[in-house]
Design goal:
InterPro entries: OHCU_decarboxylase, OHCU_decarboxylase-1, OHCU_decarboxylase_sf. The protein is an all-alpha fold and about 170 residues long. It has nine helices and no strands. It is globular.
């Protein structure tokens, strides 16, 4: 089995800027070799779900705004940059960028964390549509939706890092 330090180094960023999830998964002793995307995802997700509401809120809050100031400044994590670029969010027209900025602001004001969606396979119009629909959710509904999206993002990231089960 890889060392704790190596495991956290490799998987600590799967849940955005939240290495505590990988640390707890490793310390829990539930990981089995060979490591697979599904197996590591199950362990990390179990830790995420067992985390306090404040810790889960912190994970949500660690995510960048879509097409936001971090993207413009080139300060996204490599995973986030690739994900947003793949959805075309790095190629928005000025009007589209203004709409994303407006929605980001309204969403954060309403919910207290950024809009989170697994963008793989989606285009900017799909994302805007989801944004416009989800901003009407209650805080509880949106917290549940956002945490489910975080788990989906983690699985998508892991499938690029690890093989599927044999």
């Amino acid at each position: 089995m890889m060392s704790r330090e190596d495991f956290v180094s490799r998987f600590g960023g799967v849940f955005e800027h939240s290495p505590f999830i990988a640390e707890r998964a490793y310390d829990g002793g539930h990981l089995r070799e060979p490591l697979t995307a599904a197996g590591v995802h199950a362990s990390l997700t179990a830790v995420f779900r067992a985390a306090s509401p404040e810790e889960r809120f912190g994970v949500l809050s660690a995510h960048p705004d879509l097409a936001g100031r971090l993207a413009i400044a080139g300060e996204l994590t490599e995973d986030s940059r690739k994900e947003q670029s793949g959805a075309g969010l790095d190629r928005l027209s000025p009007a589209e960028h203004a709409r994303f900025t407006e929605l980001n602001s309204a969403y954060v004001e309403k919910f207290g964390f950024p809009f989170i969606i697994a963008v793989k396979g989606l285009g900017k119009d799909d994302i805007l549509s989801a944004f416009e629909t989800r901003i009407g959710n209650s805080r509880d509904e949106e917290f549940a939706t956002a945490t489910a999206q975080v788990e989906r993002i983690a699985l998508l990231r892991l499938t690029t890092m690890l093989p599927e089960a044999e």
